[in-house]
Amino acid sequence: MTLKRLLIQNLRNLSNVDISPSPEVNLFYGENGSGKTSILEAVNLLALGRSFRSHKHKALINYQQASFTVFGKVLGQDHSEVPIGINRTQEGEAFFKANGVNVPSAADLAIYLPAQVINSDTFLLLEGSPKVRRQFIDWLVFHVEPNFFPAWKAIQRCLKHRNSLLRRDRIDSFELAPWDQELVSLTETIHRFRAICIEHFNACIDELLEEFVKVDGIKLSYYRGWDKDTAYAEVLSTGVERDQRLGYTHLGSHRADLKITVKGQDAAEILSRGQQKLLVCALKIAQGFVFNQLTGRKCIYLVDDLPAELDEKYRSLLVNWLNKMKTQVFITGVERETLLSSWRDYTDITPKMFHVEQGRVTETG
Ligand SMILES: Nc1ncnc2c1ncn2[C@@H]1O[C@H](COP(=O)(O)OP(=O)(O)OP(=O)(O)O)[C@@H](O)[C@H]1O
Ligand SMILES: [Mg+2]
User: Fold this and answer.
1) CA of 35 to the centre of ligand 1 (A)
2) CA–CA separation, 279 vs 318, rounded Å?
3) What share of the chain in percent tops pLDDT 70?
4) What residue spans in the chain does CATH classification 1.20.1050.90 cover?
5) Separation CA 322–CA 202 (nearest Å)
6) Are strands 257-262 and 265-266 parallel, antiparallel or unpaired?
7) pLDDT by residue (tens digit) across 95-128?
Protein backbone atom coordinates (compact mmCIF):
# COMPACT_ATOMS: atom_id res chain seq x y z
CA MET A 1 0.00 0.00 0.00
CA THR A 2 1.22 3.47 -0.70
CA LEU A 3 -0.24 6.87 -0.19
CA LYS A 4 -0.05 8.54 -3.60
CA ARG A 5 -1.58 11.86 -2.75
CA LEU A 6 -2.31 13.62 0.52
CA LEU A 7 -4.59 16.62 0.96
CA ILE A 8 -5.02 18.29 4.34
CA GLN A 9 -7.33 21.16 5.21
CA ASN A 10 -7.51 22.99 8.51
CA LEU A 11 -5.81 20.34 10.59
CA ARG A 12 -3.97 22.20 13.38
CA ASN A 13 -1.74 24.78 11.62
CA LEU A 14 -1.96 23.01 8.24
CA SER A 15 -4.57 25.06 6.43
CA ASN A 16 -4.02 23.75 2.92
CA VAL A 17 -1.55 21.00 2.09
CA ASP A 18 -1.48 19.07 -1.17
CA ILE A 19 1.46 16.72 -1.73
CA SER A 20 2.27 13.67 -3.82
CA PRO A 21 4.51 11.50 -1.61
CA SER A 22 7.14 9.19 -2.99
CA PRO A 23 6.21 5.49 -2.80
CA GLU A 24 9.53 5.01 -0.97
CA VAL A 25 10.92 7.58 1.44
CA ASN A 26 9.47 10.96 2.40
CA LEU A 27 11.37 13.26 4.73
CA PHE A 28 9.78 16.31 6.34
CA TYR A 29 12.03 18.90 7.93
CA GLY A 30 11.36 22.25 9.52
CA GLU A 31 11.55 24.25 12.72
CA ASN A 32 9.86 23.31 15.97
CA GLY A 33 6.15 24.04 15.72
CA SER A 34 6.14 24.19 11.91
CA GLY A 35 3.66 21.31 11.46
CA LYS A 36 5.75 18.16 10.85
CA THR A 37 4.08 15.94 13.43
CA SER A 38 0.69 17.21 12.23
CA ILE A 39 1.45 15.78 8.78
CA LEU A 40 2.08 12.34 10.26
CA GLU A 41 -1.04 12.83 12.37
CA ALA A 42 -3.01 13.49 9.16
CA VAL A 43 -1.71 10.26 7.59
CA ASN A 44 -2.53 8.36 10.78
CA LEU A 45 -6.05 9.79 10.72
CA LEU A 46 -6.51 8.19 7.32
CA ALA A 47 -4.94 4.98 8.55
CA LEU A 48 -6.80 4.63 11.81
CA GLY A 49 -9.52 7.26 11.90
CA ARG A 50 -7.97 8.83 14.96
CA SER A 51 -4.97 10.83 16.04
CA PHE A 52 -1.98 9.36 17.87
CA ARG A 53 -1.73 12.58 19.88
CA SER A 54 -5.18 13.43 21.13
CA HIS A 55 -8.52 11.80 21.73
CA LYS A 56 -10.17 15.20 21.59
CA HIS A 57 -11.02 15.80 17.98
CA LYS A 58 -11.52 19.52 18.65
CA ALA A 59 -7.82 19.93 19.38
CA LEU A 60 -7.13 18.85 15.80
CA ILE A 61 -9.36 21.39 14.08
CA ASN A 62 -7.67 24.67 13.27
CA TYR A 63 -8.69 27.25 15.90
CA GLN A 64 -10.49 29.43 13.36
CA GLN A 65 -12.24 26.73 11.39
CA ALA A 66 -15.41 24.66 11.71
CA SER A 67 -13.91 21.34 10.61
CA PHE A 68 -10.84 19.58 9.25
CA THR A 69 -10.56 17.29 6.25
CA VAL A 70 -7.87 14.81 5.29
CA PHE A 71 -8.06 13.09 1.95
CA GLY A 72 -5.74 10.48 0.49
CA LYS A 73 -5.38 8.39 -2.61
CA VAL A 74 -4.17 4.92 -1.72
CA LEU A 75 -2.52 2.71 -4.28
CA GLY A 76 -3.15 -0.95 -3.53
CA GLN A 77 -0.80 -3.87 -4.16
CA ASP A 78 -2.98 -4.75 -7.16
CA HIS A 79 -2.50 -1.18 -8.50
CA SER A 80 -6.09 -0.25 -7.70
CA GLU A 81 -6.57 3.32 -6.50
CA VAL A 82 -8.82 3.96 -3.52
CA PRO A 83 -9.71 7.49 -2.43
CA ILE A 84 -10.27 7.71 1.32
CA GLY A 85 -11.19 10.69 3.47
CA ILE A 86 -12.12 11.86 6.92
CA ASN A 87 -13.87 15.01 8.03
CA ARG A 88 -14.59 16.06 11.62
CA THR A 89 -16.51 19.09 12.77
CA GLN A 90 -16.47 21.26 15.88
CA GLU A 91 -19.94 19.83 16.67
CA GLY A 92 -18.45 16.36 16.97
CA GLU A 93 -19.71 14.93 13.69
CA ALA A 94 -17.40 12.49 11.94
CA PHE A 95 -17.59 11.51 8.29
CA PHE A 96 -15.55 8.69 6.81
CA LYS A 97 -15.43 8.06 3.08
CA ALA A 98 -13.87 5.27 1.06
CA ASN A 99 -14.15 4.70 -2.66
CA GLY A 100 -16.65 7.53 -3.04
CA VAL A 101 -19.18 6.31 -0.47
CA ASN A 102 -19.74 7.11 3.18
CA VAL A 103 -18.62 4.34 5.52
CA PRO A 104 -19.93 4.07 9.08
CA SER A 105 -16.74 4.01 11.12
CA ALA A 106 -13.01 4.51 11.30
CA ALA A 107 -12.55 0.73 11.28
CA ASP A 108 -13.94 0.70 7.75
CA LEU A 109 -11.14 3.05 6.69
CA ALA A 110 -8.44 1.18 8.57
CA ILE A 111 -8.25 -1.69 6.10
CA TYR A 112 -7.02 0.56 3.27
CA LEU A 113 -3.89 2.07 4.74
CA PRO A 114 -2.25 -0.07 7.44
CA ALA A 115 0.32 2.09 9.22
CA GLN A 116 2.88 1.66 11.97
CA VAL A 117 3.78 4.68 14.08
CA ILE A 118 7.13 5.11 15.79
CA ASN A 119 7.21 8.15 18.08
CA SER A 120 7.97 9.09 21.66
CA ASP A 121 4.66 7.57 22.84
CA THR A 122 5.16 4.22 21.16
CA PHE A 123 8.49 3.97 22.94
CA LEU A 124 6.46 3.64 26.13
CA LEU A 125 5.05 0.30 24.99
CA LEU A 126 6.93 -1.62 27.67
CA GLU A 127 6.10 0.75 30.53
CA GLY A 128 2.48 1.24 29.52
CA SER A 129 -0.56 -0.71 30.66
CA PRO A 130 -1.43 -4.12 29.15
CA LYS A 131 -3.98 -2.27 27.00
CA VAL A 132 -1.18 -0.65 24.99
CA ARG A 133 0.44 -4.01 24.26
CA ARG A 134 -2.95 -5.59 23.54
CA GLN A 135 -3.53 -2.86 20.96
CA PHE A 136 -0.12 -3.64 19.55
CA ILE A 137 -1.01 -7.33 19.06
CA ASP A 138 -4.49 -6.50 17.83
CA TRP A 139 -3.19 -4.20 15.09
CA LEU A 140 -1.71 -7.28 13.45
CA VAL A 141 -4.68 -9.53 14.18
CA PHE A 142 -7.11 -6.90 12.82
CA HIS A 143 -5.23 -6.61 9.55
CA VAL A 144 -4.61 -10.32 9.11
CA GLU A 145 -7.94 -11.83 10.18
CA PRO A 146 -11.10 -10.19 8.79
CA ASN A 147 -13.29 -11.97 11.37
CA PHE A 148 -11.37 -10.54 14.30
CA PHE A 149 -13.01 -7.12 14.48
CA PRO A 150 -16.65 -8.35 14.39
CA ALA A 151 -15.79 -10.85 17.16
CA TRP A 152 -14.00 -8.17 19.16
CA LYS A 153 -16.99 -5.83 18.90
CA ALA A 154 -19.38 -8.63 19.90
CA ILE A 155 -17.23 -9.31 23.00
CA GLN A 156 -17.47 -5.68 24.07
CA ARG A 157 -21.27 -5.86 23.76
CA CYS A 158 -21.41 -9.15 25.64
CA LEU A 159 -19.19 -7.90 28.46
CA LYS A 160 -21.31 -4.79 28.83
CA HIS A 161 -24.47 -6.86 29.30
CA ARG A 162 -22.79 -9.38 31.59
CA ASN A 163 -21.24 -6.63 33.73
CA SER A 164 -24.53 -4.81 34.12
CA LEU A 165 -26.14 -8.07 35.31
CA LEU A 166 -23.26 -8.62 37.74
CA ARG A 167 -23.93 -5.23 39.30
CA ARG A 168 -27.54 -6.04 40.05
CA ASP A 169 -28.38 -6.96 43.68
CA ARG A 170 -29.78 -10.35 42.79
CA ILE A 171 -29.09 -12.44 39.74
CA ASP A 172 -30.02 -15.99 38.89
CA SER A 173 -27.48 -18.11 37.11
CA PHE A 174 -29.90 -18.73 34.23
CA GLU A 175 -29.77 -14.99 33.48
CA LEU A 176 -26.01 -15.06 33.05
CA ALA A 177 -25.95 -18.35 31.13
CA PRO A 178 -26.68 -17.04 27.59
CA TRP A 179 -24.08 -14.26 27.97
CA ASP A 180 -21.50 -16.68 29.37
CA GLN A 181 -22.09 -19.06 26.51
CA GLU A 182 -21.60 -16.37 23.88
CA LEU A 183 -18.64 -14.93 25.73
CA VAL A 184 -16.90 -18.32 25.88
CA SER A 185 -17.23 -18.90 22.18
CA LEU A 186 -16.13 -15.36 21.20
CA THR A 187 -13.26 -15.37 23.68
CA GLU A 188 -11.90 -18.63 22.33
CA THR A 189 -12.12 -17.25 18.79
CA ILE A 190 -10.25 -14.08 19.72
CA HIS A 191 -7.62 -16.06 21.61
CA ARG A 192 -7.09 -18.38 18.63
CA PHE A 193 -6.65 -15.44 16.22
CA ARG A 194 -4.18 -13.77 18.56
CA ALA A 195 -2.21 -16.95 19.23
CA ILE A 196 -1.70 -17.61 15.51
CA CYS A 197 -0.37 -14.09 14.92
CA ILE A 198 1.93 -14.26 17.95
CA GLU A 199 3.36 -17.54 16.69
CA HIS A 200 4.35 -15.91 13.39
CA PHE A 201 5.59 -12.87 15.25
CA ASN A 202 7.82 -14.92 17.54
CA ALA A 203 9.31 -16.69 14.54
CA CYS A 204 10.89 -13.49 13.25
CA ILE A 205 11.50 -11.37 16.35
CA ASP A 206 14.73 -13.03 17.57
CA GLU A 207 16.83 -11.93 14.61
CA LEU A 208 15.61 -8.35 15.04
CA LEU A 209 16.21 -8.32 18.78
CA GLU A 210 19.73 -9.56 18.24
CA GLU A 211 20.49 -6.64 15.94
CA PHE A 212 18.65 -3.92 17.80
CA VAL A 213 18.96 -4.69 21.49
CA LYS A 214 21.83 -7.14 21.97
CA VAL A 215 20.68 -8.09 25.45
CA ASP A 216 20.55 -11.77 26.38
CA GLY A 217 17.44 -13.41 27.72
CA ILE A 218 14.69 -11.22 26.22
CA LYS A 219 11.49 -13.18 26.01
CA LEU A 220 8.07 -12.36 24.65
CA SER A 221 5.18 -14.37 25.97
CA TYR A 222 1.53 -14.02 25.21
CA TYR A 223 -0.88 -14.06 28.15
CA ARG A 224 -4.38 -14.90 26.95
CA GLY A 225 -6.17 -13.11 29.80
CA TRP A 226 -6.78 -16.16 31.99
CA ASP A 227 -4.89 -19.26 33.13
CA LYS A 228 -3.87 -21.29 30.09
CA ASP A 229 -4.63 -24.63 31.79
CA THR A 230 -8.23 -23.78 32.61
CA ALA A 231 -11.11 -23.67 30.13
CA TYR A 232 -12.64 -20.19 29.91
CA ALA A 233 -16.12 -21.56 30.69
CA GLU A 234 -14.75 -22.83 34.01
CA VAL A 235 -13.04 -19.50 34.72
CA LEU A 236 -16.40 -17.75 34.32
CA SER A 237 -18.37 -20.17 36.45
CA THR A 238 -15.86 -20.46 39.31
CA GLY A 239 -15.18 -16.72 39.29
CA VAL A 240 -18.77 -15.54 39.31
CA GLU A 241 -18.82 -14.51 42.98
CA ARG A 242 -15.66 -12.52 42.63
CA ASP A 243 -17.00 -10.91 39.42
CA GLN A 244 -20.16 -9.96 41.33
CA ARG A 245 -18.14 -8.40 44.11
CA LEU A 246 -16.04 -6.48 41.61
CA GLY A 247 -19.01 -5.58 39.42
CA TYR A 248 -17.27 -6.65 36.23
CA THR A 249 -15.85 -9.69 34.45
CA HIS A 250 -12.40 -10.00 35.86
CA LEU A 251 -10.71 -12.38 33.42
CA GLY A 252 -10.91 -12.89 29.68
CA SER A 253 -9.49 -11.80 26.34
CA HIS A 254 -9.97 -8.19 27.46
CA ARG A 255 -7.11 -8.80 29.91
CA ALA A 256 -4.64 -10.28 27.40
CA ASP A 257 -1.08 -9.00 27.37
CA LEU A 258 2.22 -9.44 25.62
CA LYS A 259 4.61 -9.93 28.50
CA ILE A 260 8.14 -8.87 27.71
CA THR A 261 10.80 -10.03 30.11
CA VAL A 262 14.58 -10.11 30.47
CA LYS A 263 15.79 -13.21 32.29
CA GLY A 264 12.35 -13.55 33.81
CA GLN A 265 11.99 -9.94 34.99
CA ASP A 266 9.78 -7.24 33.54
CA ALA A 267 11.77 -5.68 30.66
CA ALA A 268 10.55 -2.18 31.57
CA GLU A 269 12.41 -2.49 34.87
CA ILE A 270 15.62 -3.86 33.41
CA LEU A 271 16.27 -2.18 30.09
CA SER A 272 17.60 1.36 29.79
CA ARG A 273 15.41 3.96 28.09
CA GLY A 274 17.54 3.66 24.96
CA GLN A 275 17.34 -0.14 24.95
CA GLN A 276 13.56 0.09 25.35
CA LYS A 277 13.35 2.32 22.28
CA LEU A 278 15.41 -0.16 20.30
CA LEU A 279 13.26 -3.04 21.47
CA VAL A 280 10.17 -1.15 20.34
CA CYS A 281 11.79 -0.51 16.94
CA ALA A 282 12.42 -4.25 16.60
CA LEU A 283 8.80 -5.01 17.53
CA LYS A 284 7.50 -2.47 15.04
CA ILE A 285 9.65 -3.82 12.22
CA ALA A 286 8.56 -7.36 13.08
CA GLN A 287 4.91 -6.27 12.82
CA GLY A 288 5.49 -5.05 9.28
CA PHE A 289 7.28 -8.24 8.31
CA VAL A 290 4.62 -10.57 9.68
CA PHE A 291 1.87 -8.43 8.17
CA ASN A 292 3.58 -8.77 4.79
CA GLN A 293 4.18 -12.50 5.25
CA LEU A 294 0.57 -13.24 6.12
CA THR A 295 -1.24 -10.90 3.74
CA GLY A 296 1.19 -10.14 0.91
CA ARG A 297 0.54 -6.45 1.66
CA LYS A 298 2.87 -3.82 3.07
CA CYS A 299 2.20 -1.29 5.78
CA ILE A 300 3.52 2.24 5.74
CA TYR A 301 5.75 3.61 8.53
CA LEU A 302 5.39 6.99 10.23
CA VAL A 303 8.46 7.92 12.25
CA ASP A 304 8.31 11.17 14.20
CA ASP A 305 11.46 13.12 14.99
CA LEU A 306 13.86 10.31 14.17
CA PRO A 307 17.12 12.18 14.94
CA ALA A 308 15.84 13.20 18.36
CA GLU A 309 14.83 9.67 19.31
CA LEU A 310 17.77 7.53 18.19
CA ASP A 311 21.48 8.17 17.85
CA GLU A 312 23.21 7.83 14.51
CA LYS A 313 24.18 4.18 14.80
CA TYR A 314 20.67 3.00 15.57
CA ARG A 315 19.10 5.48 13.15
CA SER A 316 21.05 3.78 10.40
CA LEU A 317 19.97 0.35 11.66
CA LEU A 318 16.30 1.35 11.58
CA VAL A 319 16.74 3.00 8.17
CA ASN A 320 18.39 -0.17 6.88
CA TRP A 321 15.50 -2.34 7.99
CA LEU A 322 12.90 0.05 6.61
CA ASN A 323 14.86 0.03 3.38
CA LYS A 324 14.92 -3.78 3.35
CA MET A 325 11.16 -3.85 3.68
CA LYS A 326 10.74 -1.69 0.56
CA THR A 327 7.79 0.06 2.04
CA GLN A 328 6.61 3.67 2.06
CA VAL A 329 7.93 5.73 4.95
CA PHE A 330 7.24 9.22 6.29
CA ILE A 331 9.90 10.58 8.62
CA THR A 332 10.22 13.94 10.33
CA GLY A 333 13.11 15.83 11.88
CA VAL A 334 14.16 19.41 12.49
CA GLU A 335 17.34 19.55 10.42
CA ARG A 336 17.40 18.66 6.75
CA GLU A 337 20.97 17.34 6.67
CA THR A 338 20.73 15.08 9.70
CA LEU A 339 17.54 13.59 8.36
CA LEU A 340 18.86 13.09 4.86
CA SER A 341 22.25 11.71 5.83
CA SER A 342 20.80 8.51 7.35
CA TRP A 343 19.38 7.61 3.95
CA ARG A 344 22.13 8.99 1.74
CA ASP A 345 24.90 7.29 3.67
CA TYR A 346 23.29 3.90 4.19
CA THR A 347 20.97 3.23 1.24
CA ASP A 348 20.81 3.90 -2.49
CA ILE A 349 17.42 5.56 -2.17
CA THR A 350 16.88 9.20 -2.98
CA PRO A 351 14.18 10.40 -0.61
CA LYS A 352 11.61 13.02 -1.46
CA MET A 353 12.26 16.03 0.75
CA PHE A 354 9.57 18.38 2.04
CA HIS A 355 10.17 21.63 3.87
CA VAL A 356 7.54 22.48 6.46
CA GLU A 357 7.29 26.15 7.34
CA GLN A 358 4.50 27.66 9.44
CA GLY A 359 1.97 25.12 8.18
CA ARG A 360 3.03 25.28 4.54
CA VAL A 361 4.66 22.27 2.92
CA THR A 362 6.96 22.61 -0.08
CA GLU A 363 8.68 19.82 -1.96
CA THR A 364 12.35 20.64 -2.14
CA GLY A 365 13.80 17.66 -3.97
N1 LIG B 1 -5.99 23.40 16.67
C2 LIG B 1 -4.94 24.10 16.27
N3 LIG B 1 -5.10 25.18 15.45
C4 LIG B 1 -4.04 25.90 15.02
N5 LIG B 1 -2.77 25.61 15.34
C6 LIG B 1 -2.54 24.56 16.14
C7 LIG B 1 -3.60 23.73 16.64
N8 LIG B 1 -3.08 22.75 17.39
C9 LIG B 1 -1.75 22.93 17.37
N10 LIG B 1 -1.41 24.01 16.62
C11 LIG B 1 -0.08 24.52 16.30
O12 LIG B 1 0.34 23.81 15.14
C13 LIG B 1 1.75 23.78 15.07
C14 LIG B 1 2.18 22.43 14.56
O15 LIG B 1 2.54 21.56 15.57
P16 LIG B 1 3.40 20.25 15.29
O17 LIG B 1 3.39 19.52 16.55
O18 LIG B 1 2.91 19.59 14.06
O19 LIG B 1 4.84 20.87 14.97
P20 LIG B 1 6.22 20.14 14.72
O21 LIG B 1 6.76 20.69 13.44
O22 LIG B 1 6.07 18.69 14.81
O23 LIG B 1 7.10 20.69 15.92
P24 LIG B 1 8.26 19.98 16.80
O25 LIG B 1 9.50 19.99 15.95
O26 LIG B 1 8.37 20.87 17.97
O27 LIG B 1 7.81 18.61 17.16
C28 LIG B 1 2.25 24.23 16.42
O29 LIG B 1 2.77 25.53 16.24
C30 LIG B 1 1.02 24.25 17.29
O31 LIG B 1 1.08 25.26 18.26
MG1 LIG C 1 6.81 17.30 16.19
Assistant:
1) 5
2) 11
3) 100
4) 123-295
5) 19
6) antiparallel
7) 999 999 999 888 888 889 999 999 998 888 999 9
Going by CATH, does the domain composed of 1-114+297-365 fall within 3.20.20.70? no
User: Residue 286: its pLDDT value, please?
Assistant: 95
For residue 205, the tally of other CB atoms under 10 A from its CB is 21
Contacts of 292 (CB under 8 A, 6+ apart): 298, 299, 325
Work out which ligand 1 atom sits closest to the CA atom of 53: 17
Ligand 1 geometric centre to CA of 359 (Å): 8
Per-residue model confidence as pLDDT tens digits over 264-313:
999 999 999 899 999 999 999 999 999 999 999 999 999 999 988 888 88
How many A from CA of 12 to the centre of ligand 2? 12
Asked whether 117 and 109 are in contact (CB, 8 A), the reply is no
Q: How far apart are CA 11 and CA 39, in angstroms?
A: 9
pLDDT tens by residue, 35-79: 999 999 999 999 988 888 888 889 999 999 999 999 999 998 788
Pinpoint the residues of the chain covered by CATH 3.40.50.300: 1-114+297-365
Q: How far is the CA of 283 from the centre of ligand 2 (A)?
A: 22
**252 and 190 in contact (C-beta within 8 Å)?**
no
**Ligand 1 pocket by Cβ (under 6 Å):** 12-13, 30, 32-38, 59, 61-63, 305, 334, 356
Q: Which fold is adopted by the domain 123-295?
A: Glutathione S-transferase Yfyf (Class Pi); Chain A, domain 2 (1.20.1050)
